[in-house]
Amino acid sequence: MYNHLLVAVEESEYSLRAAQEVLNLVDDHTEVSLIHVIDPNRMEEDILPSVINEIKYNQFEEKYKEIKEFYQTNQIHHTLEVKEGNIADLILEEANSGKYDAIVIGAMGKKKFLKLEFGHVSDKILKESSIPVILVK
What we know:
globular; single chain
């Protein structure tokens, strides 16, 4: 079992599956830290970035409620940190800080056909992480 896991979460079903997979990786002493990163520089369509970020954060809030309920039901103690900046870079910075045994991440984000967002993020994390990466499909 692991002592401290970092779990990257966002608003997709892949992220929910990754958060749920933690149940198979923890024991009573494992610390679980969730990280959610909002990238203010990503623009979609012709909508203002602030509007996009608000929509994404609201979608994440809904997904986090599911994760939180799952963790409470299964007695998994966790913390959540929300950061703003480049998604992959901030996750890697946290993962490589020396505090974690492994990182758990979903295979792709909500745009699986375009392979944007978490698809590229998970690719970069797999290549650049100094700790083991558990990629959940």
